[in-house]
Amino acid sequence: MTKIAVLGAGSWGTALANTAAENGHDVRLWTHNTDQAEEINTQHTNTKYLPQAKLIDKLMATSNMALAVSDVEIVLSVVPTKAVREVAKQLGEVLKKQSHTVILAHATKGLEQGTYKRISEMLAEEVPALYRSALVVVSGPSHAEDVIKHDLTAVSIASSDESAARLLQKVLSNNTFRAYTNDDLLGSELFAALKNIVAIGSGALIGLGYGANAQAALLTRSLVEMRALGLAMGAKEKTLYELAGIGDLIVTGMSPNSRNYRAGLGLGQGKTLEQVESDMGMVIEGVNTTKAVYDFAQDYKVDMPITVAIYQVLYENKPIREAISDLMGRPLKSED
Ligand SMILES: NC(=O)C1=CN([C@@H]2O[C@H](COP(=O)(O)OP(=O)(O)OC[C@H]3O[C@@H](n4cnc5c(N)ncnc54)[C@H](OP(=O)(O)O)[C@@H]3O)[C@@H](O)[C@H]2O)C=CC1
Ligand SMILES: O=C(CO)COP(=O)(O)O
Which of 30, 32, 261 to mutate to test the pocket of ligand 1 (most atoms within 8 A of CB)? Predict the structure, then answer.
């Protein structure tokens, strides 16, 4: 039995914590909301984020971070990108007082606003090296809504520390949830962030009334952009064709369970970004990531016309049909 703290009781933190608890591990789910901790402990539900789900009775929630992480081997952070640094700071303070070392994992898919740092870079800055033995990322095609229903799911667990990745793999895997390890932390984090941008575009196509041809074209041509930026930034090419790459691109770009896809759908149906964001009530990571990647593409001199088009729709009020028409009207070229 492994002791693990999961930080963040949104849909994904709750689903991952529940999976580890179902697998027989000692799981403490930390939330900054005391009422939510009380609901999880007494009703075994998280109605705000997973309204239909019944959680396993022994899943313990707490709003006390020191209690959550005391004696744990693994801390798995699953808060949205905008909260990562703040939560990691709190974690760093707590670990300093407890003076013990943890495997520090995360399952967040984004880039920090302003600095454009990857999540593991923020974690490494806020949690002193003395208190973490390894950095690990959990990624891959995995909607919380499907995982909580025990729909079949495969994820990737990346780290340069193979034994740490293996421990996470063992803690999370079961008959319906299968984790694979890989050693490309940078690629796994970067592709996880990039696919959210594409999912917004994919939802928008459906919202506008386009079909599967259009979606397949978008996903495939986006893969070319992801490859170009990924290679420029140091990702391994093979990761693009694995669960953290194409796997996640497919599920997020095709599933109505995706928040990014649903945001795009709303935009395609004529809603404003503000309406879409306020209706969602959950994090839509791709909106901020689009801005980061738009800037990255210029810094790294990578041609990313689809990302630019989505940026123009989100940040420059360009009508979506005009953005599509401009994309389709570019000079003809070869695929690569
Ligand atoms: N949902 C999914 O299926 C998947 C999500 N992910 C990724 O996981 C990350 C989290 O997503 P998800 O669970 O969907 O997010 P949700 O929007 O469902 O939940 C976010 C959670 O984080 C909490 N939170 C927000 N700000 C803070 C803060 N400053 N301090 C502490 N807690 C905070 C929220 O609390 P409050 O209710 O108080 O706002 C809420 O519990 C994202 O990066 C997402 O891309 C990855 C794979 C699958
Ligand atoms: O990353 C995800 C599935 O793998 C979740 O994507 P959304 O945040 O778009 O729901």
Answer: 32
In DSSP notation, 109-139 reads --B-TTT--BHHHHHHHHS-GGGEEEEEEEE
pLDDT digits (tens, 9 = 90+) for 157-182: 999 999 999 999 999 999 999 999 99
Residues 20 and 156 in one domain: yes
Phi and psi torsions of 180, nearest 5° = -110, 150
Annotated binding site for NADPH: 11-12, 32, 49, 109, 144, 259, 283, 285
- Cβ density class 105-122: b for 16+ within 10 Å, e for less: bbbbbbbbeeebbbbbbb
Is residue 336 in some structural domain? no
Q: Are 124 and 229 found together in one domain?
A: no
Q: With cut-offs at 50, 70 and 90, classify the pLDDT of residue 99.
A: confident
Residue partners of 108: CB distance under 8 A and separation at least 6: 77, 78, 79, 80, 81, 84, 119
Overall pTM > 0.80 = yes
Tell which one of 119, 260, 288 to mutate to probe ligand 2, the residue whose CB is within 8 A of the most ligand atoms: 260
Whole-angstrom CA distances from 276 to 3, 252, 259, 283 are 38, 17, 10, 11
Alpha-carbon span 71 to 94, nearest angstrom: 12
